[in-house]
Design a protein that fits this description.
Blueprint (H helix, E strand, L loop, with lengths): L1 E2 L5 E6 L8 H8 L8 H9 L3 E3 L2 E2 L12 E6 L3 E2 L11 E4 L3 E6 L16 H9 L9 E2 L2 E2 L8 E7 L2 H12 L4 E9 L7 H4 L4 E4 L3 E10 L7 E4 L4 E13 L3 E8 L6 H8 L18 H4 L1 H9 L5 E9 L6 E5 L4 H13 L4
Parallel strand pairs: 6-9, 11-18
Antiparallel strand pairs: 1-2, 2-5, 3-4, 3-5, 7-8, 8-11, 10-11, 12-17, 12-18, 13-14, 14-15, 14-16, 16-17, 18-19
Length: 349
Amino acid sequence: MDDSGIGERILRVVIGPNPPARLDKALAGEIPEEAAISRSRLARLIAEGAVAGPAGPVADLKARVAEGEVYTITLQPAREARARPEAIALDIVWEDDDLIVIDKPAGLVVHPAPGAPDGTLVNALLHHCGDNLSGVGGEKRPGIVHRIDKDTSGLLVVAKSDRAHHGLARQFEAHTVHRHYQALVHGVPSAADPRLRGLRGVGFETGGILRIASQLARHPTDRQRQAVLFEGGRHAVTRAQVLEGFAGAVARVDCWLETGRTHQIRVHMAYAGHGLVGDPTYGGKRRVSARTLGAAAAEAVAAFPRQALHAATLGFTHPLSGEDLRFTSPLPADFAQLLALLRQGAGAD
């Protein structure tokens, strides 16, 4: 990679033998890994005229290439992020020059959106990291490779550099990231339940592990929700194991993801008839019996203000050092208090 201009970098790429027919795929196969240019960013660079070949700039992703041709990619200095930094307190579990692991509280939105333009985790990270962000996708911003819902608490990892973002994204795409969630659900999932055994996409594996496999897509009439499908949509697999049951009315379960789709645990558990306690979107506001759980526990279940879901464990390989990293987060106070009331009222099964 050569320097040219002020802060500008030029990447020189030579097309190797038997290249793919189209420019974007051929370049993607030849760009060195340390350059950390994702396919989506490469497509933007081509469209912006930042890629030049033997005949000058090339803006067509599908342009034909030939072995031995030399292409240059002009990389501009990272632009300042459009979101503004905000001094929001963060619970930082681990950090280095390329990554940061955050224990997110319930109520904090991860990324600015029309309904939440500021006060988000991204705004907080821009303030915390300052000039230590080396640029993700050509912009000085934190690289969000996965998200957890506003009212879900727990762990997530964020990239501070393009090379880390690229490496983490590959791990999420390959489903090699270890993610376990603690949840409180209505009812107690059981392999002995004939209703569950007859439900399409639902089965049980060794050890009583519930497996739910379906397609997920936006609900056809409610755009804020996801819906279970078996044609179209995106493939999703959730597994869950009961850790504690409370008088058949509520269970604490360990859920883990083979895929990571929007609202995946919430919509899958609701589909199985075991919606999360407190979930306002997927029907988790069921009435529970005070006689069964005890008055205090039943009242607390009914009043729980959010989905009872916590991202408790996160494990991945550091995309630069190769170190295996594993983090755990204790249950937040509201979740832990509700669990204590359940244990006191009904006792664990």
